[in-house]
Amino acid sequence: MPELSLLLPIKDHQSERRLFVGRVIFTSIGATLLLGFVVARLVQLQVFDHELFFEKSQGNRIRIEAVPPIRGLVFDRNGRVIAENLPAYQLELIPEQIEDIADTLNRLAAIDLIEFDDIPRLTELSRSSQQFKPLTLRFRLTDKEIANFAIQRPRFPGVDFQPRLVRHYPDGELFAHAVGYVGAISTADLQRLDTARYAGTSHTGKTGVENSYESDLHGDAGYRHVITNARGRQVPADTRELVDSLPADRVPGPGSNIYLSLDLDLQKVAFAALAGRRGAIVALDPWNGEILALVSTPSFDPNLFAVGMTRAQYAALRDNIDRPLFNRAVSGTYPPGSTIKPMLSLAALETGATNLTRKTVCIGYFRLPNDEHRYRDWKPEGHGAVDLHDAIEQSCDVYFYELSIKLGIDNMHDYLTRFGLGSATGLDVRGEGAGLVPSREWKRKNFSNRDDQRWYHGETVIASIGQGFMLATPLQLAAAVGTLATRGIRYRPHLVAAIEDPLTGIREWIQPERLDDVEISNDFYWQNVLDAMHDVMQGPRGTARAVGTGAPYKMAGKSGTSQIVSIAQDAQYDEDALAERLRDHALFIAFAPFDNPRIAVAVIVENGRSGSGVAAPIAKAVMDAYLGYGDNAIR
Amino acid sequence: MRLGDDRRILSSGTAPLSSFSELGHRLNVDGPLLGGLLLICGFGLFVLYSAAGENSRLLVNQAIRLGVALAVMLIVAQLPPDFLRRWTPWGYLAGLILLMLVLTKGDVGQGARRWLDIGIRFQPSEVMKLAVPMMAAWFLHDRQIPPRVGQLLIIAAFISVPTVLIARQPDLGTAVLVAASGVIVVVLAGMSFRLIAGLGLLAVPGALVLWNFMKDYQKQRVLTLLNPDSDPLGAGYNIIQSKIAIGSGGLFGKGWTNGSQAHLEFLPERHTDFIFAVLGEEFGLFGVLTLLALYMFVIGRGLYIAAQAPDTYSRLLAGTISLTFFVYVFVNTAMVTGLVPVVGVPLPLVSFGGTSMVTLMAGFGILMSIHSHRKLLPH
Fold first, then answer.
1. ipTM of the complex
2. Which residues of A touch B (CB under 8 A)?
3. Would you give the end-to-end CA distance of chain A in angstroms?
4. Entry pTM
5. Which of A47, A79, A338, B139 has its CA 20 to 30 A from that of A202?
């Protein structure tokens, strides 16, 4: 052909046309084949795999949406509300509906609905969360804020307020430590919680009863089937014709209501008695372990956590030098000081380390053989000749120093442990401190240096007045004084008295859990030690006689004043010169009425200087109120 | 021939039909072609209304675009093929200049530089869809076909320069279509099958070279095609949802505006590139085959016009325009059904969007011009 074209420069129209038509036919066949592939594919998808894809398209559009349950209420022992759920408006933002989230947040901050400091966090949240899911900016708006936003709403597409139930604690800081609080579910919570149960829940118990009884309070999530679009958003009702029939929904099961053993009025009295101090009070019924009042001060408003607070507010709480978030009553451990003397007395009597008539001459200090170190008595001039009763009543340290050497640290450890010191009481709320009752074995195990592993007599001596290594929580001391009041019968302390099914109203009462008794062979020993404790408050020379004398009922108690700094030998003890926070802690344990105990109380006032002077009046105020005396009598 | 017969029957029929036919003749309009196009456009608007969530504003918008495109078609139909041929090199040159302008000064949209604003905003790459086959046809017009290797190399240059420029915008879909239109010209011109087969074999290493030049998102599309389930929420999402939409439609579909995939927004790009899936979901296999039949009718009519054309330029151009239209249809439907990677090729005359529609209609205008001017040309 090339030769031909050279010879014939004029085009061969006929052959060109033939060639072209041939190519058109060829390409048409090719195109038909290609289209055949598409048609075959369509037949495969729409005929053979139709059922599969139809199922998939159905599954695509129906979404199961969790419906959160209503959280159970918390009542005091008399049915008064301590934690409830109130409707509140919260401010929400739907990321997918907003073009410029940073701009929207900035403008919201400009009208004081959110904080400028919060913008980076919220921006981050809006990016990481599902774009169709509302992101809560604020959990509770004030009426003024709602009114303000209502006017501005057109300026904020994608932002709106929604009614939700918000946890509310009507008494504010009164029960902050006992009942605790709920807070927004954190990423850490999510690892712990059953995501299916919490699918629709925004808050979970963080501390106290709210935390420890979370599984009772929360309830069971329900669900409903909703028709959703690709972004998971529920479609408006008018597109509902796409639905033929949806599977049945499940109504959420509300959380159980909880009745506490706490008494609202007694709690108020205790809280008021500690006002302005750092300290804790635990009052319980020694015959069943029910906690009647549990206070830790300073406190905080738990509603801040339920509603959500500003970063500045949270930082102020967290960094406050007085540590308001710290539950001193349950988690705080303090040297128990002389409050352990009645228990040591029983140990000494039982083991024969002393008897009821033996006397020691107190000259204001005690020296171990071959040791120059002087172990001071709190009374520099000494108590003179004292027997066990006197030593308890006047809190003579020297008597116990001497007794401790005969008793030995391991016996001390043994008996104090029987009273429940040195390990968590097993309260039904988490976060308990264990305290510490030292022993030779403990020291061997917990120190690495060989010299430190040895137990020294001097350590036994100071342990006898509850100093040194020894630590106890106010809750442990309350349980221990309760055990003194019952003469050895012990119950596990608990805060929850009953759990109520909100639908049937049936209450399941928590049965008191009796623990191993403290067995003392001779009841006379109990009588004598308790008599001495009575005289502490109402005897002629009792350390707290100023508090107990003249009261209309008989009571018993024991003061404790625990040093938190050691004083150099021969140095003048000058309290005023010590910084306020280095002053001695003031402790007091008490029970009443003396002959028929109904309440046992432990009080600690941090840096309160004097157990009998500062802590004892507080303990008495609580007992007065509970037993129905004075202006604050609870009934 | 049957279609021509039809027209003869129509023209000898009743008076109004005759006068319509006469009017069509005077306007250089090809009746069967126009009829097929109008049926596709009408069906398309019907589907679009549903795909766009029953948005009538969007529908009106598309109808206006269709009207403009039809007007352009009518205008182009008045230009004799000789006139077009004479101006072809200049049009091609202008297109190249515009493409270079785009790369330097174009407006950026969705990470690509495709738009040029010179009074009106348009995509110069669209011009090339017609300019490249016209240029190739112009080059072969005076030469004896089949073309020789040297001539093929020159044509290859005509094709590859704009293709590379478009691919660099980047706009892979259009680049593929432009290259395809050029290749179709030489195939129709009788390029030897041995050469075609040889080049087909060369395409394998060529594909590897191309792979290296591809942007990450383009590579992702290819990888996703091979295994869409590997990335169900990412790049594979489109294909998975599109297959669900089509498959769930079955034989007769879920009914107009009742497609849950489309109306609940599971199907992405449902009123643009993936509108074929909406059709499949709501009208089923029946509706899909109807549209494909309409397309084949239009393509067939175009190829008939090409076969009837009097000279090389007209033949090659008419054949190429028809087959390029087929490539559009094939690439889009194959992409939506998951047979080829997702390249941004709209379903011609049905997908929402204006620029490509004007080019398409201009192409059909050329077809009409070729058909209606053929008797005026010397043989």
1. 0.88
2. 2, 5, 11-12, 16-17, 19-24, 27-28, 31, 34-35, 37-39, 41-43, 45-47, 49-50, 52-54, 56-58, 60-61, 227-231, 235, 239, 242
3. 123
4. 0.61
5. A79
